[in-house]
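ok so dumb question maybe but i'm new to this and my supervisor (M.) told me to 'just get the structure for SRR1 domain containing' and walked off. so i did the thing. is this what she meant?? sequence i used:
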Amino acid sequence: MESNDWQMVKKKKSAKRKDFSNNEKQPPELSRCEPLKDCKNLMQSVCGTMENIKTSEFWNSCQKSLKQCLYIQQTAASERNRCKGVGVEQYLDITSEEGSCSSLCSCDCVCYGLGNFSLCVTSRYQLGFLLLFLDLFKIPRCQSYIFDPIFSPSEISVLRELGFNVLLENEEGKHAVDKPTVFYMLHCGKALYNNLLWRNWSAKSLSKMIIIGNSFKGIEERLLSRILQRDYLYIHKSLQAVEETTFPENSQFSDVFNDTSVHRFPTEKLRALPNELWQCEDEPCYQECEDLEIIRNQTR
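this is what came out, is it supposed to look like this??
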């Protein structure tokens, strides 16, 4: 799809975006016959960034935090089901019962809004972190899907060489879940999270999801309640069921992973929600939203 099929988005206020400022120019349209050495340089840069994160104290802290918060979920699920005499296959298989990190090898991973990682250091570090996360939890890259309408041809080539499936259609975040799925959505617009929740607004689907992205609690704190309920109804509804674990603070990567949390939807919380909360409204359209932080699919 040609670049003029996408409309520009306004700069996000709540978290640092990977957009270009007024003083920076958008990258020119790159030829699909770009020299291979440019792709090689980009690949080397991504690998170097990945190594920088891997040897940092931040990654060490993040590993502990991720294993702990996901292990708590799995342990609780195992205990409940042992009491009920049923299996745990409907839950995300994160850890062994001894507490050691196992795998998410049956999960999919979907990444939205990474940005131009060939030009933006923040985007490159977020890609490096994603690669480490996939390795840590043994999620095959062939089960990982990635999309951003501003990817250049060289970036698409590198992502494919890394083993990702590059999506070609702008789903606007409306990705239906039919199996356990991790969504990696750092510094994305609120509408993207809202669309994802709307598409999967059922206890069955939400219990299969992990969202790594902007803090929902932070969104609630920054927005007027009437705006949150009017424009981002599903984020508002989800606050009654979500369990959120914030990323550890670290000055080295403060601009890269600020306002980032792991969001999970435990089944016992979902089942406790009143029936009227599950009533699904019409597809979000954001007609009254003055600052829409999303690139729309103009072919819809």
